[in-house]
Design a protein that fits this description.
alpha+beta; single chain; C8orf32 fold; 19 strands
Length: 393
């Protein structure tokens, strides 16, 4: 375990020591990051087979060489994970096991997958966790300067994944190209990309009605094994199963969706307009100190970097009638971005694994059989470590 963890850490350090691609390079020009904050994150999942009316009918997991994966964003424009802080834990029933942690690279936007492997297990519940330290920044942008940036002749190779469709973001569907044409009147490239992005996101906010908070919560449940305080805390929070997401296409057709669906529609529209964009699924503590899933978006602007925006937070702040040449709230200017921890650019992992019934950024492959109807409980714990390290001037 120690040897494997050291290999993974060295691999990440080698990548981070080199030149960061646009996927994770700090913002430049009119886009800035400021007020860094540091946190420790614990992402904890308990899996239990569903209890039937007759306890004798309850199935067992039958696992062998079964991988569990969780994305890790080591370098984002507004976050940085401490490469030597990534650790993992695994409990089979109440027995602690070696999680065989590996960090696998080669995924879109320079994403890594923290991979734990269950060697062999037959039983009814297991629990795993990944922990790491992370620094996050707030963002601000000079709108006047951003609006002067022209369309590039070609987008950098490292951001072109932000032009491709993905699960829940069906940007190649004609419905989005048609809507972009309606907004732009075939004059899209006569408007700077920064202003075009504002028009597109405003249209999404106007068109999509938002319902619910996007979180699927299960019934209060308790599990044995490992650190019982964690599972009890998850149960007290009525346990998070994952996110309610139907995807950009369905939300656009129904003109209705969750906050996550609104983000999906915005990203699909930007991609259909030829602007690289990506969703960010992260976690944020609410006023009660409970960490929950939250999502927002980023689009790539040449000579600046990835510009963050939160369409849900923009609702009700006047952007429906606001001049695109004026600064918009929660569009490039996100002072509370340093309270959010990015987890993934995908609602489900960019790998060949099964997602739980409700997407929650993690996935697994319960080989050799299939998942016998799990009841997952996701718990995220955020511990503030105070002010972070300023960027060198």
């Amino acid at each position: 375990m120690k040897h494997v963890g050291m290999i993974a850490t060295l691999m990440v350090l080698a990548v981070m020591a080199g030149f960061a691609p646009p996927s994770g390079r700090p913002p430049i020009g009119p886009l800035q990051r400021y007020e860094p904050r540091r946190y420790d994150l614990r992402f904890d999942v308990t899996l239990s087979t569903l209890q039937q009316l007759d306890a004798r009918d309850r199935q067992n997991y039958d696992l062998k060489d079964a991988p569990i994966v969780l994305p890790v964003i080591f370098l984002d424009s507004f976050s940085k994970v401490d490469s030597d802080s990534v650790k993992a834990g695994l409990w089979l029933e109440s027995r602690a096991e070696d999680p065989h942690l590996l960090l696998k690279s080669g995924f879109p936007f320079n994403t890594y997958l923290a991979t734990l492997t269950v060697d062999s297990f037959s039983g009814q519940s297991l629990r795993w966790q990944v922990t790491y330290g992370v620094q996050v920044w707030s963002s601000r942008i000079d709108d006047d300067k951003a609006a002067l940036i022209a369309w590039p002749k070609e987008w950098p190779k490292e951001v072109q994944d932000g032009l491709q469709p993905q699960k829940y973001i069906e940007s190649d569907d004609p419905i989005f190209a048609q809507e972009v044409q309606k907004i732009s009147g075939n004059k899209l490239h006569m408007v700077p990309p920064y202003l075009a992005a504002k028009d597109i996101i405003r249209d999404c906010i106007k068109e999509i009605q938002v319902s619910g908070d996007g979180t699927n919560r299960g019934e209060a449940i308790t599990f044995g094994g490992g650190a019982g305080a964690t599972t009890r805390a998850a149960a007290a929070h009525n346990s998070i199963r994952g996110m309610n997401v139907m995807g950009a296409k369905n939300a656009a057709l129904k003109k209705l969706g969750t906050p996550h669906d609104l983000v999906c529609v915005c990203i699909a529209m930007l991609r259909a307009a030829g602007i690289p964009a990506r969703p960010i699924i992260g976690t944020l503590e609410d006023q009660k100190g409970i960490a929950d899933f939250v999502s927002w978006g980023e689009f790539y602007l040449p000579e600046a970097g990835w510009v963050p925006f939160d369409p849900m937070a923009m609702r009700g702040k006047g952007v429906r009638t606001m001049d695109v040449r004026k600064a918009w709230p929660e569009f490039g200017n996100m002072k509370d971005l340093n309270k959010r921890i990015p987890l993934s650019y995908y609602f489900i992992p960019p790998a060949t694994v099964e997602s739980p019934q409700y997407p929650a950024v993690w996935g697994w492959d319960p080989r050799p059989g299939r998942d016998p109807s799990s009841n997952p409980a996701v718990f995220m714990d955020i511990t503030s470590r105070g002010k972070g390290v300023e960027d060198p001037q």
